Amino acid sequence: MSRISRLPSSLLRAAACTGAAALALTACGSGSGSGSTSTGSGEVKVGLITKTDTNPFFVKMKEGAEKTAKAEGVKLMTAAGKFDGDNAGQVTAIENMVASGVKGILITPSDSKAIVPALEKARAKGVLVIALDTPTEPQSAVDALFATDNVKAGELIGEYAKAAMKGKAAKIAALDLAPGVSVGVQRHSGFLKGFGATDKDVACAQDTGGDQSKGQTAMENCLQKEPGINVVYTINEPAALGAYTALKAKGREKDVLIVSVDGGCTGTQAVKDGKIAATSQQYPLKMAAEGVKAVVTYAKDGKKASGYTDTGVTLITDKAQDGVTSKDTAYGLENCWG
Amino acid sequence: MTATSTPPSTSTPYSELKAPTPVRRLLTQPTTGPLVALLLACAFFSFSSDQFLTGGNFSLIVQQVMVVGTLAIGQTLIILTAGIDLSCGAVMAFGSIMIAKMAAEGSLPPLAAIALGLVVCGGFGMLNGALVQKIPLPPFIVTLGMLNVAFALTHIYSEEQTVTNLPGPLTALGQTFPLGKTDITYGSLVTIALFLLLAYALSSTGWGRHVYALGNSPEAARLNGIRTSRLTIGVYTVAGILYGIAALLLISRTGVGDPQAGQTDNLDSITAVVLGGTSLFGGRGSVLGTFIGVLIVGVFRNGLQLMGVASIYQTLITGVLVILAVTVDQISRKKAR
């Protein structure tokens, strides 16, 4: 019995896997619209590697890159890590892109240090490497960096919060990202600098991973620890919305000032709705567009982009404060991402 | 069917009853299906991308799968005993950060740091095996707990910092040597050697036969005089040592000690085992099948990337492949009864 059934079983397995291979065909056919096979060496290829596929920030970044690639007549290849921090996944993506003959790679490093050896290998093969959004350590590991000044983003909301408090004593909660991640550290210290405070003045600091539900839990715990909190710094808007939910449950949403960073469309709408007082908006679409253009320039006349390009940050609020430059949510919603 | 006409005899080996022809033997190998799938995938990608069918690209694929491949050897051993190991990626991450930190920042010579890493990873495996066997607890729960323990220890020990400036011996396996026009890494050779070694041990030694027997029926194995307790702990320990080797391969590949490493490698290794035709219910499958399973994943990821397909489709396809492979396993099991 077993002998007879095992023969078709292994064939069945092969057939099943073939089916999946066929699915691969359909998948790329209906995929990002760039599924056509490569033809010869005349075509310029640009690689974009983000931290994940799912974060709306990177989705917008990809969109900006695709749009520019189409306009410039170059082919865009995309890849991403499986989770935030997936260095090995990004290394594999770099290798595969170099193997496929890309002219330049745009990358948002999951780990600023760990990615460096892989980038050096790619650069040694003449590939232009540009970091988007997140710098590498050292920054010289890439040819150029196109990113938001995260310290400045923090400073803007710090200055805003200081002005909005109008001299009232502040009890600060900081809903941070995760230990050791440069973006979070820079925004946090920028906020304190703008507010004119130090870490000693922070009544409660918690990590949220930039996640809404963890932001809510963190805020609940902070209120438990220190009920008098009246200023909340958040790493991004999902964390801010989590904090808002926790405050609302306690009936405190009106008398606590929440400030944030990112400028996603959901977040900017929350500013308009009065849930978040102000946010620092950044521009992932611009980072990607500039990146693709830089690779095109390199392909045309061999000129490599270099140094740091600030892609800008704008304070968005509907309750402007004297002495703090800001734009309203109408502008914010027009320029938001996600 | 022919077997039913012969009176069952305890002294006649099963293989003699079947008397298979070489062709039939080939077709009934559990690795045949995965191998055909791998070849079909390769053929498909050769047509769709100019860069796919080159020695350099195949060398690259092997490099890319060597870490998960080595983890998957350990995973295969454990799954053959009807167990499962969710902690392999986390144990590897701890091993890698330990080796990197001891050698780069501690005072240990590199080779001593590597040896210590292997011992510690083996210790994690032994502890898993002991908890599974002695208390006893389900492997799923034990290794789920150990996943969290190893993950936390990695982050505590590393202080969330990536370790850079590694001494030469730690990255030696990531170096290449030319073979014709192709550059091969030493680590790829280590991985292939490990696959061959464990395949031999499973198919041609008493230990290997005992592993299969244990997976088929622990009670029958015990009644047949197999020391199942010692065997189980041994299998988990060997797996742990393999995770230690994977840790070294990982360091040599990326050139750094990375506390974030390995977070999905437990599932990736199980994927490879399943795609390679090993049954999740134990007792059936092979290490060579797992090697083919690992290559299937690597070929798909590389081939789709060369075609310019976004990575989320790679995840989609891998998921479909796994479900198909398990379905086939289930159907063939039912028929076998």
How does this model look, in words?
- The complex is a heterodimer of chains A (338) and B (337).
- Chain A has 338 residues and is of the alpha/beta class.
- Chain A folds into two domains: 45-148 and 283-305, 3-Layer(aba) Sandwich (Rossmann fold); 150-281 and 315-335, 3-Layer(aba) Sandwich (Rossmann fold).
- Helices cover 46% and strands 17% of the residues of chain A.
- In chain A, α7 (212-225) packs across α8.
- By secondary structure, chain B is mostly helical.
- A two-stranded antiparallel ribbon of chain B has the order 1-2.
- Chain A: One of its GO terms (cellular component) is cell envelope.
- Chain A: Keywords: Signal.
- Chain A: Residues 46-304 form the Periplasmic binding protein domain.
Describe the protein's topology:
The complex is a heterodimer of chains A (about 350) and B (about 325).
Chain A: H1 2-29, E1 45-50, H2 56-72, E2 75-80, H3 87-99, E3 104-107, H4 116-124, E4 128-132, E5 144-147, H5 150-165, E6 172-176, H6 182-195, E7 202-207, H7 212-225, E8 231-234, H8 237-249, E9 257-262, H9 265-272, E10 278-282, H10 284-301, E11 307-310, E12 313-316, H11 329-334
Parallel strand pairs in A: 1-2, 1-3, 3-4, 4-5, 5-11, 6-7, 6-8, 8-9, 9-10
Antiparallel strand pairs in A: 10-12
Helix pairs in contact in A: 2-10, 5-6, 7-8, 8-9
Chain B: H1 2-5, H2 14-18, H3 22-28, H4 32-48, H5 55-80, H6 88-104, H7 110-134, H8 139-158, H9 168-171, E1 176-179, E2 182-185, H10 186-204, H11 206-216, H12 218-223, H13 228-254, H14 265-275, H15 287-307, H16 311-336
Helix pairs in contact in B: 4-15, 5-10, 5-13, 5-14, 5-15, 6-7, 6-8, 6-13, 7-8, 7-13, 10-11, 11-13, 14-15, 15-16
Subcellular location (chain A): Cell envelope
GO molecular function, one term (chain A): carbohydrate binding
Family (chain A): Belongs to the bacterial solute-binding protein 2 family.
